[in-house]
Amino acid sequence: MRNNSIPPENIVHMSNDDVAHDPENPIQGNLVNVPEGPNLYPGCEMDYRKEEVTPEVFLKVLAGDKEGVKELIGRDGKVIASGPDDHVFVYMIDHGSPGVFYFPDLTGLHNTDLINVLNQMYREKSYKEMVIYMQSCYSGSMFEGLLPNNINIYVTTSANAHEGAYMCCWDQFRKVYVGSVYDNAWMYNTDKTNLHKETLYQQYEVVKKACSTARGVSHPQQYGYLSMNKEVLAQYQAKSEQYTPGVCRNTQDTDEHTQGSKFTYAGIDLNNPALDMVQIATTARRLIESRDLSGQKRKKLEAELRHLMLVKKKAESLTKDLVRAALSSLRGVTETDILTGKERVDNSECYKAALSLFSARCPGIDMGRYPFARRNLQAFINLCNHQPQIDVMNAIMEVTEKYGICRAL
Length: 409
Known about the structure:
- Residues 300-397 form the Legumain prodomain domain.
- It comes from Aplysia californica (California sea hare).
- By secondary structure, the protein is of the alpha/beta class.
- The protein has helices at residues 55-62, 66-73, 111-123, 181-192, 200-213, 234-237, 278-288, 295-326, 335-340, 348-361, 377-386, 389-402; strands at 14-15, 48-49, 87-93, 96-97, 100-103, 107-110, 129-135, 153-157, 167-171, 176-180, 221-224, 264-265, 268-269.
- The chain contains twelve helices and 13 strands.
- Strand 5 (100-103) and strand 6 (107-110) form a beta hairpin.
- Helix 4 packs across helix 5 (200-213) and helix 8 (295-326) packs across helix 12.
């Protein structure tokens, strides 16, 4: 955005900032999104870092509530001080589960809370038009059936409401995945195209093609006021009167990093794993490529992989038992309906309460530490849509008491 001449004072950057200086990063202060790519970290001026990056702070920033931000973090913070003539561009990337976009430490932004703030901003004329790009698993569930089509907001997501989004770009040197398909596709396209000529829809088509040709396939979606997709990218990703096409490129093409021979572990694609499976995929791939490691390091990786697979298995088993317990009094649905259904969040209050209680009762399946466990949350949504909240809560209490892993930290 800064390279495209948007004034720094108009940009708010929130980041957990947990990669560039991580002890495992072999090049400290370095951040790339393709192997051997340019260092993207210099110039990343962060307005909110670490524990300040929460859903509550984000919503206050988005709504331009300076006093609200100060109450939350104890200092003045930059907000989106937009008005009725402004165009706003919002880019969000993290993990997700059905109906939830996650911030650091498993603090969840629920879809209804986001939509409520967007509606409020529209009523208060806080923008002229807004574009949101969201990268997370189940990102479509944050908007599907919820975002009005008449409040001048256009959204694209990396996945539909029922599927994961995918990583790419395995870095042999760092031994991690350094990019994701949706993000790398739109950012590279922005770097190389003429933003005065290319439209939002054309970029969406570029991204959709990238996500369909990657080994891990997701289905990017559009939501909201779709007529806005005829507008050019410069309206949102550049300051039009100062932007010059193709002068500064930050990224590299990811096509070569989303192809290649497919190989898997436990059904997980190790070329382009789903975001919520990247922890298992990384460990498995490190183990497969561990020829140059000592026997001790290989054993450590093997132990880590066994532990991750055990947690995954226990989380799946616990979910099945929880569903069975909650359906002790049948109300027109079966266990299979709940475990396989792909319903939208209709009872947000129950879903929020169930997530909160489960997290408190079963810290051993920490969904912040084990993102793959979030795949089971669709069952919580389905239960809450069909069963009384008290039945769901009682089932969580009953089943978590029986699982030793719930007490294991």
